[in-house]
Amino acid sequence: MLTLLLLPPLALRPPPPPRMLRMATRRPPPFMLARRGKRTAPASPRVMQRSATGVPEIAACHPERYSSLLRGKVAHMEALLAASLAAHPGAALPPAQVFESARLHFRMRASFKFWREGEGLHYVMFNREDARTPQEVVHYPMGSVRMNDLMGALREELLAAPSLAQRVNDARFLTTTTGEALVTLTYNRPIAAPCSRGLMWEAEAAAVAERLGVSIIGRSRNVAIATGAQTVRERLHVEGRGVCEYEQMEGAFTQPNAGVCQSMLAWAYDATRGLDATDLCELYCGNGCFTIALAPNFRRVVATEVSKTSVLLAETNLRHNNISNVRIARLSAEEFAMAYYGKRPFRRLEEAGIFVEDFTRRSTPSSSTLRAPGWTPRAFPYTPHLECGVLLERRSLSMLRGIQNASHALGGVGQ
Q1: Catalytic pick from 195, 281, 285, 388?
Q2: CA proximity to 267, closest of 233, 298, 240
Q3: Phi, psi (5° rounding) for residue 256?
Q4: pLDDT digits (tens, 9 = 90+) for 204-239
Q5: Contact (Cβ atoms closer than 8 angstroms) between residue 254 and residue 264
Q6: What is the pLDDT of residue 340?
Q7: 342-371, pLDDT tens digit by residue?
Q8: For residue 142, what pLDDT is reported?
Q9: Threshold 0.85, pTM exceeds
Q10: Would you say 284 is a known binding-site residue?
Q11: pLDDT category of residue 260 using cuts at 50, 70 and 90
């Protein structure tokens, strides 16, 4: 038996109700589809992991392995540089100068998340491979002695002061070799508002800061409250140069290993002796760490930095150290190169009393040795801009060879 179902022509079919039409044509936005596709199973609950020693592997030091690890790094560095110099017959690799770090308590700054379990409050860190599992940190052997003393004392103070512990997110410690310390607490709630809660936080924090002998800064969204000084004073003894003093501020970059920083400054100061008739351009000077140490070795110094906070700190540190031959401008390396090539003027340079001239455009015989084949951000400066990392040094050598090859193609410019 054959049954035929006859449908009316499309033109004669009644249109669907408007509500049904909207439901049929509505599609979720693409980012919602991608978000749904990432999670195929419910997320497992996060449980804090505890170590029997109170030090998870992510925060552990291994002093017994330090010497062998250092020898391995030196050998790796020498192999990389030897490979880079292989294309230059007659170039010899000088012996490496190695400066060892302290095995324990070498970090002057660190930050820790807070983790709550019941009424408890714990410092935690996270592994990069497992960013969902908190690792409890009771002791931090990498951190300075002052930092370790403060960690336990601050935790007890927070547990005893509900107005300070409520929704606290993390703690950031900044310490110095002179014993000064600055602690920053960040919150997921407002700590300052036209109500008693903000005033209560400030009063409690000031009392805790006085008992611990530190300055405490509280931060929440668009709010920062300081109970005392917002900076700490560091004193570094640079061999051959003397004592350099630096004001440091939370959030601004500082060298975390003060001992190694002293060694770096001493090495750089010794390496630049005899250059008092020349000028120095330092890109990204930070708070003036190297600027202040090296300034006596040069006639004039121009330093650049992009952070307003770091520029203010650097200018303050110049005054503390009686340095008068340095000018600082808030520019990036790319912007300074644009000013150097005359691509555009910068009022920030004029305000700092800096006048940049592209001496490669002069018709002197030596100018061609510093001329690049064209302006790009990576082409400044033309001499290798080498940092501590030997991988950067090797990359810089490779980049220089590329620039020189391009110069040959342009008819010898740059030779």
Answers
A1: 388
A2: 240
A3: -70, -30
A4: 999 999 999 999 999 999 899 999 999 999 999 999
A5: no
A6: 72
A7: 676 666 666 666 655 544 444 333 332 223
A8: 97
A9: no
A10: yes
A11: very high
- The two tokens of residue 296 are 């006596």
CB < 8 Å & 24+ apart, contacts of 388-391: 388/264, 390/77, 390/80, 390/81, 391/80
Angle at 182 between CA 176 and CA 186, to 5 degrees: 140
Residue labelled with tokens 């700054």: 109
Question: Any catalytic annotation for residue 261?
Answer: no
3-state secondary structure string across 308-320: HHHHHHHHHHHHH
Mind listing the pLDDT tens digit for each residue in 70-103? 999 889 888 888 887 777 788 888 888 999 999 9
Is 149 annotated as a binding-site member? Answer: no
Contacts of 294 (CB under 8 A, 6+ apart): 268, 269, 272, 280, 282, 301
Give the C-alpha separation, 384 to 372, whole Å. Answer: 13
282, β-bridge pairs: 303
Query: What are the angstrom distances between the C-alpha of 113 and each of 61, 116, 137, 146, 216?
Result: 20, 10, 10, 19, 16
Q: Which of 219, 343, 352, 344 is nearest to 285 (CA)?
A: 352
Give the pLDDT confidence of 117-130 residue by residue, as tens digits. 888 999 999 998 88
Residue 105 in tokens: 């308590």
Residue 140 among known ligand-binding residues: no
DSSP 167-229: TEEEEEEEE-TTS-EEEEEEESS-S-SSSHHHHHHHHHHHHHHHHHTSEEEEEETTEEEESS-
